[in-house]
């Protein structure tokens, strides 16, 4: 759905663009503003994650609609939960678009990836034995079409009718399929590895709690 | 057993794109080298150069260069003949005439030039001096089609008719009215002359000048009909597609029809074979008692096609940044295509020309960027055996083979996780390689299947009548509309826009992307990008992928 070359969504003034960035950033911080046991570790981890995935997106920009962020958002949502997954999606969209090109579409990209992160947290992609790769692959395929659909709404600017919008969606189908194949490739190659990176190390308190709790049960 | 069968099927399916994508070795590039080139700086080379035996004559058109220029065999300019009165888009092919005599007089060797301002000039090919000149009718344009010789006469298709003139002094024998026409060459047959018009009529004019029109209703006829044993072959241009038709010359009845792609090129023939081209493919037909399709190769060409003695066709691809195409026909049923990199890229409609000088074969190419390049073939003893090896392409092909091989082995061994990894990577790479062409074809199909209803752009009464029935471009700049019309022959928005901006003296900044050309600024105005409308419908794909009609109105608006 990135086929359009003569089509643009609404144009933002510099002030509107600034406001948009502030709103996006604020929502990301709000989503992250949850007390954790290890605030410094968690913050550093999230910053590293966001920067590395943003960098990956920028580097892969020459490949049309190959979007590593979609798979990352899905797995971050699955492993770290909906709030942190959505915050991750918003920050990656903002930071990577700072290099690739910022605009009205950033909102829709952030919304698309945030909704995928939310879906990831609800789809039971992770079980006690680890990542359910089959389920994760299916989810990554569907996520491609969902994300492209959401982002396509950025094109609507008052001069675009419903029929034109549907035709616009139709034009983008080859790119949607490429996005889906790209997602599948990322998931089968890197899904398990990325999932393992996201797996949280238990704190000493948690280990102690687990041990005491298990002793209590035994007792 | 079941798994092995699936593995075999998998390999066969996925090797298919590799097999079809494999590049043929390009022997032409190896055996030819650039001899000389000339940059005309402005305008475009609108029709095939010709060789008079000593000089190469090149026709240029456009704002700066409505001219015929002669070069020596080593590239030195010998003479230059301007026509500042030209109304532009001079694309009538130059016609070399040997000296001779007939009942209407004696004539020397000459080059006949038909101009868009209606002039027909006979030039001395050795020095460019005017031998004679006559004025034919003008309605927006004058002569745009291919002239033909019939004994001591030259037949000239004018804007609305056909004229017959004596070669000795240009004296008009008769002029017969037909219909409004463009690039409509004339064919000479035993019974007289055939030519087409913009309303889809095929006209027969006998040698006394009496005209009969046959309404074929297949579309605009913009070339000289080809005379074959099966009948007259016409490639007619309709709104979305075209028709290759065989017409009975005796009664004007259509005996065969073949649907083809949009915006036809000028067809050509050799013996019993006819080659047609359009925006989708090159087709070859064998015409004996009937015409039969023989082969078809995807390619985009909309201009002249020249079939050389050695069976080769060298065709310009009329799309941005494109390379030329080299086509070879085996004389039976196989037309092969090789991409040709001759340093000329992008739009072009003039055919290549070959000539032999001192035992060496030269090939001259020109295109819309006003650059003429002449290549010389190596003589046998000079042939270099150096073969270029493209490490990038070969490396990619090697990786693809590794991936397909690994996928099969992993599948047979039951390692499905790794099978999924290698096969998905293989499919991803193939898909990325196919995407530019795939998305372009897909967009065209979607547009054809689901045309968007829109309020068509209205004719402005202030526009000159000569713009009627032509392509018009409106550019909105700083609240003002700048319109230019009377443009013809473009098949996509990008090509039309570049021509229009050239006429308006506006600079256009554009950049190529994987999805087509993106217009960054027009006349220095970037805004937040530009969007375009074709006949009122908003452009959905890139300008070079947006097809237009012969009478389309394109509007550019800054966002």
Summarize the structure.
The complex is a heterodimer of chains A (219) and B (559). Chain A has 219 residues and is mainly α. Chain A has helices at residues 14-32, 39-59, 68-80, 82-100, 105-122, 133-152, 162-171, 173-198, 204-218; strands at residues 126-127, 130-131.
Key attributes of the depicted protein:
heterodimer, A: 219 residues, mainly alpha, Arp2/3 complex 21 kDa subunit ARPC3, two-stranded antiparallel ribbon, 9 helices, 2 strands, 74% helix, globular, disordered N terminus, B: 559 residues, alpha+beta, Lipocalin, Methylamine Dehydrogenase, Chain H, five-stranded antiparallel β-sheet, 5 helices, 42 strands
How would you describe this protein?
The complex is a heterodimer of chains A (219) and B (559). With 219 residues, chain A is an all-alpha fold. Chain A has 9 helices and 2 strands, in the order αααααββαααα. Chain A has a two-stranded antiparallel ribbon with strand order 1-2. The longest helix of chain A has 26 residues, at 173-198. Chain B is α+β, with helices and mostly antiparallel strands and 559 residues long. Chain B has 4 domains: 88-220, Lipocalin (Beta Barrel); 225-341, Methylamine Dehydrogenase, Chain H (7 Propeller); 391-449, no CATH class; 465-558, Ferric Hydroxamate Uptake Protein, Chain A, domain 1, CATH 2.170.130.30. In chain B, strands 2, 3, 4, 5 and 6 form a 5-stranded antiparallel sheet that branches. In chain B, strands 21, 22, 23, 24 and 25 form a 5-stranded antiparallel sheet that branches. A 5-stranded mixed sheet of chain B has the order 37-36-42-40-41, with helices on one face. In chain B, β40 and β41 form a beta hairpin. In chain B, α3 (391-412) crosses α4. The longest helix of chain B is centred in the last third of the chain and has 34 residues, at 416-449. Chain B is globular. The termini of chain B are far apart. The chains are: A mainly alpha (219), B alpha+beta (559). Chain A binds chain B through residues 2-8, 11, 62-64, 66, 133, 137, 159-160, 163-164, 167-168, 170-171, 173-175, 177-178, 181-182, 184-185, 188-189, and chain B through 417, 420-421, 424-425, 427-428, 431-432, 435, 438-439, 442-443, 446-447, 450, 452-453, 493, 513-519, 528-532, 538-543, 545-546, 559.
């Amino acid at each position: 759905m990135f086929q359009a070359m003569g089509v643009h969504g609404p144009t933002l003034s510099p002030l509107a663009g600034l406001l948009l960035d502030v709103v996006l950033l604020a929502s990301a911080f709000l989503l992250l503003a949850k007390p954790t046991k290890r605030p410094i570790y968690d913050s550093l981890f999230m910053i590293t994650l966001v920067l590395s995935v943003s960098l990956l997106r920028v580097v892969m920009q020459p490949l049309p609609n190959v979007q590593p962020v979609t798979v990352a958002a899905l797995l971050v949502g699955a492993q770290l939960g909906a709030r942190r997954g959505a915050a991750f999606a918003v920050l990656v969209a903002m930071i990577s678009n700072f290099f690739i090109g910022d605009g009205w579409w950033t909102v829709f990209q952030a919304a698309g990836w945030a909704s995928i992160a939310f879906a990831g947290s609800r789809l039971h992609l992770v079980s006690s034995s680890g990542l359910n790769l089959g389920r994760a692959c299916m989810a990554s395929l569907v996520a491609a079409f969902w994300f492209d659909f959401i982002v396509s709404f950025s094109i609507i600017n008052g001069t675009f009718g419903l029929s034109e919008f549907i035709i616009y969606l139709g034009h983008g189908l080859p790119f949607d399929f490429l996005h889906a194949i790209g997602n599948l490739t990322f998931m089968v190659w890197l899904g398990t590895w990325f999932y393992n990176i996201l797996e949280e190390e238990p704190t000493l308190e948690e280990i102690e709690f687990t041990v005491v709790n298990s002793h209590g049960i035994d007792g | 057993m079941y798994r092995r069968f699936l593995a075999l099927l998998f390999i066969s399916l996925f090797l298919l794109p590799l097999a079809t994508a494999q590049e043929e070795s390009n022997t032409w590039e190896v055996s030819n080298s650039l001899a000389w080139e000339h940059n005309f700086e402005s305008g475009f080379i609108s029709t095939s150069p010709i060789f008079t035996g000593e000089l190469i004559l090149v026709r240029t058109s456009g704002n700066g260069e409505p001219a015929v220029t002669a070069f020596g065999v080593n590239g030195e300019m010998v003479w230059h003949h301007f026509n500042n009165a030209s109304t532009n888009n001079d694309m009538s092919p130059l016609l070399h005439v040997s000296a001779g005599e007939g009942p209407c007089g004696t004539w020397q060797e000459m080059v006949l030039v038909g101009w868009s301002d209606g002039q027909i000039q006979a030039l001395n090919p050795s020095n460019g001096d005017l031998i004679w000149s006559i004025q034919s009718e003008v309605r927006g344009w004058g002569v745009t089609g291919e002239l033909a010789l019939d004994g001591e006469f030259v037949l000239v298709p004018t804007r609305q008719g056909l004229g017959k003139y004596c070669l000795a002094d240009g004296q008009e024998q008769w002029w017969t009215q037909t219909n409004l026409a463009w690039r409509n060459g004339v064919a000479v047959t035993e019974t007289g002359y055939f030519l087409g018009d913009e309303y889809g009529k095929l006209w027969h004019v006998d040698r006394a000048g009496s005209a009969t029109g046959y309404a074929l209703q297949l579309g605009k006829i913009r070339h000289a009909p080809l005379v074959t044993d099966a009948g007259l072959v016409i490639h007619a241009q309709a709104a979305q597609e075209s028709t290759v038709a065989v017409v009975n010359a005796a009664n004007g009845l259509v005996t065969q029809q073949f649907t083809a792609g949009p915006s036809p090129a000028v067809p050509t023939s050799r013996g019993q074979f006819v080659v047609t081209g359009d925006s989708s493919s090159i087709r070859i037909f064998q015409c004996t008692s009937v015409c039969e399709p023989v082969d078809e190769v995807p390619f985009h060409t909309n201009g002249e096609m020249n079939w050389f003695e050695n069976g080769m066709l060298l065709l310009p691809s009329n799309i941005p940044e494109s390379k030329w195409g080299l086509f070879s026909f085996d004389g039976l049923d196989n037309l092969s295509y090789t991409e040709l990199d001759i340093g000329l890229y992008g739009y072009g409609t003039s055919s290549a020309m070959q000539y032999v000088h001192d035992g060496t074969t030269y090939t001259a190419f020109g295109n819309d960027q006003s650059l003429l390049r002449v290549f010389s073939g190596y003589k046998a003893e000079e042939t270099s055996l150096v073969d270029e090896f493209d490490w990038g392409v070969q490396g990619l092909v090697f990786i693809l083979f590794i991936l397909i091989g690994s996928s099969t082995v992993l599948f047979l061994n039951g390692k499905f996780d790794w099978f999924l990894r290698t096969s998905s990577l293989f499919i991803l790479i193939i898909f990325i390689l196919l995407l530019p062409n795939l998305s372009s074809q897909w967009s065209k199909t979607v547009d054809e299947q689901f045309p968007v209803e829109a309020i068509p752009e209205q004719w402005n009464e202030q526009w000159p009548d000569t713009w009627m029935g032509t392509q018009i471009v409106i550019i909105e700049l700083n609240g003002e509309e700048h319109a230019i019309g009377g443009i013809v022959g473009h098949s996509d928005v990008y090509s039309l826009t570049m021509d229009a901006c050239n006429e308006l003296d506006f600079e256009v900044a554009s950049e190529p992307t994987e999805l087509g050309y993106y217009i960054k600024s027009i006349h220095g105005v970037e805004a937040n990008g530009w969007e375009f409308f074709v006949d009122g419908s908003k452009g959905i794909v890139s300008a070079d992928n947006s097809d237009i009609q012969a009478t389309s109105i394109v509007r550019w608006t800054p966002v």
